[in-house]
Amino acid sequence: TNVLILGAFFLYISIALSTEKTLLQSKIWINFHTFETQLKTHSMSTITLGGNPVHTSGELPKIGTQLADFKLVKNDLSIATLADFSGKRVILNIFPSIDTGTCATSVRKFNETAANLTNTVVLCISRDLPFAQKRFCGAEGIENVVNLSDFKDGSFGKTNGLEITDGVLAGLHSRAVIVIDEKGTVLHTEQVQEIA
């Protein structure tokens, strides 16, 4: 579809070249803006919140690709990067907020599972403040996962197609799981359709 849209865009430019210069400039700008919007729309994922459609900023990383490096904030306010987990399999449990029942349950389950995994680390990632993540883990006795926050600029969510772009949770991450191997290659991805 993007090839057809691009072809139509260039066809329109060639036709428009025979018109007045000012009109041409405004039409090219309008069409390019429309083309850019259509491309963005095509790369979004649709998920639901309480059965209502909402969208994410893109698609999850493709299986077989390298996960993009990241800078996320740990509970002690230091920075974690992908390189910190090199040599281990990594399960990224991504969710909107630790303060929702479903998200809290997922962190508890991953904590139980992580206790039995060898050479594997589980990262629980949200846009919650590190203080909220630390409070939750302390209260729940969660010690087998690493909580990381994308609160500063949301770049992890934007880079990996996780940012919710509309609805009441806009700006937070969608609920997803990404698994990478010891070298950072994506082995598995799953976008949970219903995030409530």
Secondary structure topology:
Layout: H1 2-16, H2 21-42, E1 46-49, E2 52-55, E3 71-73, E4 79-81, E5 89-94, H3 101-114, E6 120-126, H4 130-140, E7 146-149, H5 155-159, E8 176-180, E9 186-191
Parallel strand pairs: 5-6, 6-7
Antiparallel strand pairs: 1-2, 3-4, 5-8, 8-9
Helix pairs in contact: 1-2
What does this structure look like?
- 34% of the residues lie in helices and 21% in strands.
- It has helices at residues 2-16, 21-42, 101-114, 130-140, 155-159; strands spanning 46-49, 52-55, 71-73, 79-81, 89-94, 120-126, 146-149, 176-180, 186-191.
- The strands form 3 sheets. Strands 7-6-5-8-9 form a 5-stranded mixed sheet. The protein has a two-stranded antiparallel ribbon with strand order 1-2. A two-stranded antiparallel ribbon has the order 3-4.
- The protein is globular.
Descriptors for this entry?
single chain; 196 residues; alpha/beta; five-stranded mixed β-sheet; two-stranded antiparallel sheet; 5 helices; 9 strands; globular; disordered N terminus
List the strand order in the largest sheet. Answer: 7-6-5-8-9
Helix content: 25-40%
In DSSP terms (H or I, runs of 4 or more residues), the helix count works out at 5
* Mean pLDDT across every amino acid position: 78
> In angstroms, what is the radius of gyration?
21 Å
Alpha carbon gap, first and last residue:
32 Å
Oligomer: single chain
Shape descriptor: globular
Q: Structural class of the helices, strands and pairings?
A: alpha/beta
How are helices and strands ordered from N to C?
A: HHEEEEEHEHEHEE
- Give unreliable regions as ranges: 1-24, 26-42
Proportion of beta-strand residues: 15-25%
Largest sheet: 5 strands, mixed
Q: Count all strands and give the number.
A: 9
